[in-house]
Amino acid sequence: MVSQHSYAYARLRPLAVILSISSLSSVAYSSRDPNYKDALSKSITYFQGQRSGKLPSNQTIKWRSDSGLSDGSLENVDLVGGYYDAGDNIKFGLPMAFTTTMLAWSVLDFGQKMPNQVVDNVHEAIRWATDYLLKASAQLPHALYVQVGDPVADHKCWVRPEDMDTPRTVYKVTPSDPGSDVAGETAAALAASSRVFKHLDAHYSKTLLETAEKAFDFANRHRAKYSDSLHSAVCPFYCSYSGYLDELQWAAAWLYQATKNSSYLQYAISTAAENDCDTFSWDNKLPGTRVLLSQYTLVADGGDKSASRFGEEAKRYICSVLPNLQSTTVQYTPGGLMYKMNATNLQYVTTSTFLFSAYAKYLKTSKETFSCGSTVITPSLLRHHAKRQINYILGDNPKGMSYMVGYGEKYPQRIHHRGSSLPSLQQKSEPFACGDAFQSYYYTSEPNPNILIGAVVGGPNPDDEFYDDRDNYAQSEPATYINAPLVGSLAYLAASFRS
How far is CA 100 from CA 108, 177, 277, in A? Predict the structure, then answer.
């Protein structure tokens, strides 16, 4: 689990006239591009290491085994499956649903650029999540199950998922204890995924879409933040800092995508926020909605005038994130990495690069450009900015370190992840008790015995420094919502820049 405790202060940059892509981008450390196809394949493999439930026969991360097989039994419901969010053994519904939405968006926008085996693996990763989300939604409109596991008890233990003996407490939102944010994100995930499976499994797609509409109706009818209803269970882990209106708008946007029912677009327009936002994450969906709906305004005839605000807001988002502009509101490290938050910063890098990749695609299709002050923004410029950020993650940085585990010659060895850091069942069949492994495995300087292929960690600090230490969870913990947006960007780069 990684929470959003620390906020880096935004700062404005002096006005600069940008004459070329190279002057906009930060200094590169290597003239050779990474192997984007290899990184793409590994970024999907990572999700196998996060699986909960009965593992399939084609599981390639062999040090993982079945876990959480009785999840939901405390309430006589079936909540087996889904993903652990990060390095712990809890299933948090809000980040899991966001992870699913972003994997689905990656396929929808960039699936045609993925090799067949890779896109099949992404489909499998999405379905592992949606099967669980359908179970969690089975009692709508009376209840939506949003979490399995007591996070306070879990964080006192350092055990493999296979050994869990902490309470698998079940948490839900209801009409009397609502959670519009988590229900809205669940609706978005199911609606986006329904499009992914539309031509692969029509019946499954229909079930996803029908459940998405139920979840959206539930979210809209019973409005409140889920962290108000379930505060002790979800805070400070995944508090809803941004409120729930962004998730309602985001869900409506995806339902419009899936149904083309104009009432959903009108809902998104009517709930549009007035404020600009430079952070896209599991918590705040505003920039994502704006970029998603901007494609309807980027057509030759001027697009849908009623949705024009989304196009303008998407442009302002781009202008706020690109470096070295008067409009820039995010910080960059000396090595050129976008730096937004002190904890798990790379999640904001991967989400922003995804939006840049998607918007570059939309601009190229419409043959349009726009300006941030005196700087003309082209699809090529956006693509190269995304490329620079991804290259940094994959090792083109001052430390020469890949922040994707298993990619490159130098990558984090002591990640904050229970399953990776403890001997597998095949190596040690006896279970670990709650606190027994801290001294022998958590605090040791020895590398993790199991490599969590493809996991992207929280990343370096504002000075490009990285401390490879399990106890340094802000930098060394991977999470599903760091990897999910990266999938689309890597697919885009793999097709655009041949390794």
Answer: 12, 24, 22
User: What range defines the domain where residue 339 resides?
Assistant: 21-496
pLDDT reported for residue 305: 65
Which residues 6+ apart lie within 8 Å of 465 measured at CB?
A: 399
Helices and strands, number each (H, E), in the chain: 19, 7
Polymer length of the chain? 499
Spatial CA neighbour of 421 closest among 63, 151, 85, 148:
63
Written in H, E and C, the secondary structure of 361-412 is HHHHHHCCCEEECCEEECHHHHHHHHHHHHHHHCCCCCCCCCCECCCCCCCC
| 316-338: pLDDT as tens digits | 999 999 999 999 999 999 999 99
Asked whether residue 92 is domain-assigned, the answer is: yes
Which positions are annotated as active-site residues?
416, 468, 477
Judge whether 3 lies within some domain: no
Quick: pLDDT tens for 256-265.
Answer: 999 999 999 9
Residue among 232, 121, 136 at smallest CA distance from 185: 136
Closest CA to 126 of 153, 145, 107: 107
Question: Residue 345: what pLDDT?
Answer: 98
pLDDT at 301 exceeding the cut of 70: no
Structure confidence at residue 298 (pLDDT) = 74
Q: Which of 146, 150, 151 is nearest to 185 (CA)?
A: 146
Q: Is residue 2 part of a domain?
A: no
* pLDDT exceeds 60 at position 443: yes
Please say whether the beta carbons of 332 and 340 come within 8 A: no
Number of domains making up the chain: 1
Query: Rounded to two decimals, what is the model's pTM?
Result: 0.94
Q: What are phi and psi of 212, to 5 degrees?
A: -60, -40
Tell me the two tokens of residue 24: 């906009």
Instruction: Tell whether 63 is covered by a domain.
Output: yes
Q: Which amino acid would we find at residue 442?
A: Y
| C-alpha to C-alpha distance for 469 and 6, rounded to whole angstroms | 20
Q: What is the pLDDT of residue 302?
A: 52
**Integer Cα distance of 456 and 394 in angstroms:** 9
CATH code at position 458? 1.50.10.10
> Measured between alpha carbons, how far is residue 21 from residues 18, 67, 130, 230, 486 in Å?
8, 48, 40, 47, 22
- % the chain with pLDDT above 90: 88
Per-residue pLDDT, 30:
60
- Assign 3-state DSSP to the chain and report helix, strand, coil percentages, each to 5: 45, 5, 45
